[in-house]
Amino acid sequence: MKIENKQQYYLAMAEIEQYLEKGFASLTVEEDDQLANLSRAVESWELAAYPMPMQPSLKDILNHIMFAKDLNQTQLSATLNISKSALSEFLSGNKKPNLEVAKKLHTQFQIDGNLLLESL
Protein backbone atom coordinates (compact mmCIF):
# COMPACT_ATOMS: atom_id res chain seq x y z
CA MET A 1 0.00 0.00 0.00
CA LYS A 2 1.25 3.46 -0.89
CA ILE A 3 -0.27 6.80 0.08
CA GLU A 4 0.06 9.39 -2.65
CA ASN A 5 -1.98 12.37 -1.43
CA LYS A 6 -3.58 13.98 1.61
CA GLN A 7 -6.97 12.44 0.96
CA GLN A 8 -5.51 8.94 1.03
CA TYR A 9 -3.54 9.89 4.11
CA TYR A 10 -6.66 11.08 5.97
CA LEU A 11 -8.58 7.97 4.95
CA ALA A 12 -5.74 5.77 6.20
CA MET A 13 -5.58 7.69 9.48
CA ALA A 14 -9.36 7.30 9.94
CA GLU A 15 -9.09 3.55 9.37
CA ILE A 16 -6.19 3.32 11.82
CA GLU A 17 -8.27 5.21 14.37
CA GLN A 18 -11.09 2.68 13.99
CA TYR A 19 -8.70 -0.18 14.68
CA LEU A 20 -7.26 1.61 17.71
CA GLU A 21 -10.74 2.25 19.11
CA LYS A 22 -11.53 -1.44 18.70
CA GLY A 23 -8.42 -2.32 20.71
CA PHE A 24 -5.44 -4.47 19.79
CA ALA A 25 -6.73 -7.50 21.63
CA SER A 26 -10.00 -7.42 19.66
CA LEU A 27 -8.45 -7.28 16.18
CA THR A 28 -8.63 -10.24 13.84
CA VAL A 29 -5.47 -11.43 12.14
CA GLU A 30 -6.56 -9.68 8.92
CA GLU A 31 -7.27 -6.42 10.77
CA ASP A 32 -3.94 -6.61 12.54
CA ASP A 33 -2.17 -7.09 9.20
CA GLN A 34 -4.13 -4.20 7.68
CA LEU A 35 -3.24 -1.97 10.64
CA ALA A 36 0.44 -2.80 10.19
CA ASN A 37 0.25 -2.05 6.45
CA LEU A 38 -1.57 1.22 7.04
CA SER A 39 0.90 2.24 9.72
CA ARG A 40 3.88 1.64 7.41
CA ALA A 41 2.20 3.55 4.56
CA VAL A 42 1.32 6.48 6.83
CA GLU A 43 4.84 6.60 8.26
CA SER A 44 6.35 6.58 4.79
CA TRP A 45 4.04 9.37 3.59
CA GLU A 46 4.64 11.47 6.70
CA LEU A 47 8.41 11.20 6.32
CA ALA A 48 8.12 12.44 2.74
CA ALA A 49 5.42 15.08 3.30
CA TYR A 50 6.52 16.35 6.71
CA PRO A 51 10.27 15.83 7.01
CA MET A 52 11.79 16.60 10.38
CA PRO A 53 13.91 19.74 10.46
CA MET A 54 17.63 19.39 10.27
CA GLN A 55 19.62 19.31 13.46
CA PRO A 56 20.05 22.92 14.62
CA SER A 57 23.54 24.26 15.04
CA LEU A 58 24.74 25.84 18.26
CA LYS A 59 24.43 29.21 16.53
CA ASP A 60 20.76 28.44 15.75
CA ILE A 61 20.13 27.47 19.38
CA LEU A 62 21.80 30.60 20.76
CA ASN A 63 19.99 32.86 18.30
CA HIS A 64 16.69 31.22 19.22
CA ILE A 65 17.34 31.82 22.93
CA MET A 66 18.18 35.47 22.31
CA PHE A 67 15.07 35.96 20.17
CA ALA A 68 12.68 34.05 22.45
CA LYS A 69 13.96 35.67 25.65
CA ASP A 70 14.53 39.10 24.06
CA LEU A 71 18.19 39.10 25.04
CA ASN A 72 21.13 40.72 23.32
CA GLN A 73 24.59 39.15 23.23
CA THR A 74 25.76 41.08 26.29
CA GLN A 75 22.77 39.90 28.33
CA LEU A 76 23.12 36.30 27.19
CA SER A 77 26.84 36.23 27.94
CA ALA A 78 26.13 37.61 31.43
CA THR A 79 23.40 35.02 32.00
CA LEU A 80 25.76 32.23 30.97
CA ASN A 81 28.64 33.81 32.94
CA ILE A 82 30.92 33.87 29.92
CA SER A 83 32.70 36.72 28.16
CA LYS A 84 31.09 38.53 25.27
CA SER A 85 34.00 37.45 23.09
CA ALA A 86 33.42 33.79 23.98
CA LEU A 87 29.75 34.10 23.00
CA SER A 88 30.78 35.80 19.78
CA GLU A 89 33.15 32.91 19.05
CA PHE A 90 30.30 30.42 19.64
CA LEU A 91 27.99 32.38 17.34
CA SER A 92 30.58 32.56 14.60
CA GLY A 93 31.35 28.85 14.88
CA ASN A 94 35.01 29.48 15.67
CA LYS A 95 34.78 27.94 19.12
CA LYS A 96 32.74 25.24 20.85
CA PRO A 97 31.45 25.71 24.40
CA ASN A 98 32.71 23.54 27.19
CA LEU A 99 30.51 21.21 29.22
CA GLU A 100 29.88 23.86 31.87
CA VAL A 101 28.36 26.24 29.30
CA ALA A 102 26.29 23.42 27.82
CA LYS A 103 24.96 22.62 31.31
CA LYS A 104 24.01 26.27 31.84
CA LEU A 105 22.15 26.32 28.52
CA HIS A 106 20.33 23.18 29.60
CA THR A 107 19.40 24.30 33.11
CA GLN A 108 18.73 28.00 32.52
CA PHE A 109 16.92 27.73 29.20
CA GLN A 110 15.60 24.14 29.34
CA ILE A 111 17.41 23.21 26.13
CA ASP A 112 17.42 19.45 25.68
CA GLY A 113 20.80 18.02 26.62
CA ASN A 114 20.85 15.65 23.64
CA LEU A 115 20.12 18.54 21.29
CA LEU A 116 22.98 20.51 22.79
CA LEU A 117 25.45 17.64 22.59
CA GLU A 118 24.49 16.90 18.99
CA SER A 119 24.95 20.57 18.06
CA LEU A 120 28.53 20.69 19.34
Give a short overview.
The chain has 120 residues and is mainly alpha-helical.
List the helices and strands and how they pair.
Layout: H1 6-22, H2 29-49, H3 58-69, H4 73-80, H5 84-92, H6 99-109, H7 113-119
Helix pairs in contact: 1-2, 4-5
Characterise this structure.
The structure is a single chain. It contains seven helices and no strands. With 120 residues, the chain is mainly alpha-helical. The mean pLDDT is 90. The chain has two domains: 6-49, no CATH class; 58-119, 434 Repressor (Amino-terminal Domain) (Orthogonal Bundle). Helix content is 71%, strand content 0%. The longest helix has 21 residues, at 29-49. The protein has helices spanning 6-22, 29-49, 58-69, 73-80, 84-92, 99-109, 113-119.
Write out key terms for the chains shown.
elongated, 120 residues, single chain, 2 domains, 434 Repressor (Amino-terminal Domain), mainly alpha
Structural class: mainly alpha
Instruction: State the fourth-level CATH superfamily of the largest domain.
Output: lambda repressor-like DNA-binding domains
Main sheet summary: none
According to CATH, what is the class of the largest domain?
A: Mainly Alpha
Q: What's the CATH architecture of the largest domain?
A: Orthogonal Bundle
How many whole angstroms does the radius of gyration measure?
23 Å
**How many separate domains make up the residues?**
2
Order of helices and strands: HHHHHHH
What proportion of the residues form beta strands (DSSP E)?
A: under 5%
Output mean pLDDT: 90
The rough form would be described as elongated
How many angstroms separate the termini?
A: 40 Å
What are the segments in which pLDDT stays under 50 over at least 5 consecutive residues? none
Number of strands: 0
